[in-house]
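REVIEWER CHECKLIST
Item 1: Sequence provided? yes
Item 2: Single chain? yes
Item 3: Sequence as submitted:
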Amino acid sequence: MKSINGVLSVKSLVLAILSVLPLVVSAQGDDDVSILTKPTNFVELGLGNVPNDSYGFGQYNGLGRSGIFGIGNLSVQGGDAYGQGLSTRRWSIDGTNLGTDIRAVDASIRDQGHWMFGLNFTQQHHDIADFWTPMQGSMGGNTFRLPQGFGTISTATAAVPYGTQALTPTQVGYFHKVNVHTNRYNTGVTLGYDIDRQWNVQLDWNHIEQSGSKLISSGTDGNNKAFGATLAGYSTGKEAIQMLMNPTDYTTDNFNLALNWAGAKAFFTASYYGSRFVDNYSSVSFSNPYSSGKAPNGSLLGAPYPVDALSTPPSNDFNQVNFSGGYNLTPTTHLVGGYSYGRNTQNMGYVNQDQMQPGGLPVNSLHGKVITTHADLKLTNQTTRDLSLSAGINYNEHDNQTPAYTYRFFDLGSGPETSVSIPLSYKITEGTLGGDYRITSAQRLHFGYEYKETKRWCNSVLPIDPATGLPVGARVSATNARYYQAVSVLDCVEVPKAEENKFVVNYRANASDALNFNAGYAYSDRSSTVNPAFYSPLQANSEGFENYNYQAFFDGSRREQLVKAGVNYQATDKLNLSMDLRGTKDEYYDSVMGVQQGKSSSVNLDAAYQVSEKTTASVYANWQYRSRDMVSATGRDSVGTAGLTGWSNNLIDKGSAFGANLTHGGLMHGKLDLKADASYSLDRTHYNTQSYTTAAIPGVVCATTPGNAGYNCGSTPNVTSELLRASLTANYHIDRRSSVTLGYYFEKLNSNDYYYNYYQLRSTGTTTMPTNQLSPSYTENVVFVAYRYSFM
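Item 4: Structure as written out by the authors:
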């Protein structure tokens, strides 16, 4: 499924409003020296109105609820350093979007060359979805329960519809809408002190509090039984899907302390960074109303529902020391580099329901520890007047030192399983060579070479039990024995090594004062080493995470080519034209299954025209195309092809956007300025799936039966997002200090994603609780008025 680009790309309306508000009018008549030496302050107040509720429209701008909202902005600066004062002290207070819940306030005071102190606060609101649920419990909490009167839902196979496709009117009556959202509050303090002209120290601290919820799905647990149930034939329903409001009750503290030194030929920084993340919950719990018995939906259980639990993100700590610096070896040769060492730990207790852990856990917590190391070094040299060269190296290591353990458990379907936790580590080494050559005063050439090596391994491998040939503690079974034969720390990694070589060349030319041109080409080849002895230590039985011969696109061998070009033409003093082209092609030449190839292209056109001294107009157009071809298989076998059937899939994304802008000033004897904006975008995603046959894997049998059987071949309906925006603002200058802005903003989104059909009441799968979530579409007409007063 494709994310709806039209929604995710929606800019904050408040920012849009601010962008069309005019700059403060020059204080005509003020003393020229005061204008140059004193800051211009302003205070702005206003009101706007949103007519309709729409979480899609208000997703990031805080305007998802209908009604009046405030416009509040200010910028005030002062201190003896301004004007004709001899002091070096300055202060400032800035506030933006103060009338909404995406507000920000910054205040600082500094004595230049001596010290500084700053405070800042930001609030962010994110509307996620309008979500329907029968569960009782507050959004942002971690306990959700069904009322006993809701009754059970039978998952026993019956004539369609059944299960959640056949909820009773009483059960439907318990559904209610919740606006799922998160709020984020960030408070920061900055301190700085200049010890002398070379040394200074700076401290930054940020405290972040997050509340609300995000949506998450979970399967129900067949091991967690209801006690005292009186419903005949009742048996706890397993592996049925519940969508939950996962609480985001988090706090994060980030601390940075840095000591800086700067000399005539060198500079140096030593710093410490610390971060502590705390989740104030450890789990979210929810009722399980499902029964595998055939009692009708709505039948009363006669006892409390079984309560399942899902863990929330664990609290963790990160500490890091950093060193960086540079030295001018000669007037034309410079060396810069850095080193950092970090330690990430996580040791929260497991959320353990005894029904899922027969015999208990091997340990009560993860004892997680990851060591990160980074080093970089870069040398640049102005070899000649026309030629500069550079060379650099980067090293990054993620060393996962978490211990390995064997975990025996029951899965959600009550099956006994065994898995082994094997911590994955990796290191990436990169080297670069580059140069810039001035061919003539109008032509320049850049060339470069990059090398990248990635190595992956596991730090811990459990000892093998001679009697079974499996890791100590593993359960012996015919289906999983072949997955636990590893005796090397590399066998748990499918691609232990990858090497990539990349070549880049870019050319720029100024053909004339009015015309300039640029073009570039890049070629890279990533060669991946596939481990034939790979096994997945996490898998519990024959159902692997990746099918045999499947390669993830970010791991597989790949050749990539990129071509780009651009031209800018100043046709006249009033007309400017520009065009940019870009295209890529990826070939995954060693992947038997997985992504086979990908292509992308884009075209951007811009034009700006100065109609008159007081009137300007601009237009733009953009087209984008992306495609991806892959092959895979049904079935789940990571060491062979037994039982697998093949299919191929083609994905195509197409996008286009058009826009225009017009500004006209100086009306009504110079008092009125007008600005108009309009834009239109259309994004479409298309999937097509077909049978795919190899010598080892037969193709799938394409089903064309509607209903629960569905269609497993052919094309899906297009996923579309169509967005239209328009705004008109008028700014009237009452006098040299005061102005009033009137504005109108229109936004209309039409989106269609067939995936949302699955969420609807009566249309879900038989074991999926409906949520009635809709593909976001809306129409909003926003009006606003704001008054700005400027002063010195």
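Item 5: Key structural point noted by reviewer: DSSP finds five helices and 38 strands in the chain.
Item 6: Recommendation: ____
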